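Researcher: If convenient, please comment on what follows.
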Amino acid sequence: MVLFIEKALLFMIVLRLISGSIEITAAMLMLKLNDLEKAFYINSLLALVGPFILIVTTGIGIAGLAEKIPLTKSICLISGILLILFSLKSK
């Protein structure tokens, strides 16, 4: 039995696995350091990783679906992601 996975899906899976590994590693590092200031610093760095992974995986997904979904839905998806990122940066 041959399993076929689209390249876009495979890249998205790998990026999410890397992201999850970074999160787990950061949590273990916080536990090992046992220092609130350092844990806060590590958590701040993680706040940079999350949006980056979101943007990249969504971009890959939209590129993979470009011929399968209408342009208006693609624009709505991109707009939604931009609004999420905007809300994270606004006070």
Remarks:
- The radius of gyration is 17 Å.
- The CA atoms of residues 26 and 32 lie 10 Å apart.
- The chain has a mean pLDDT of 88.
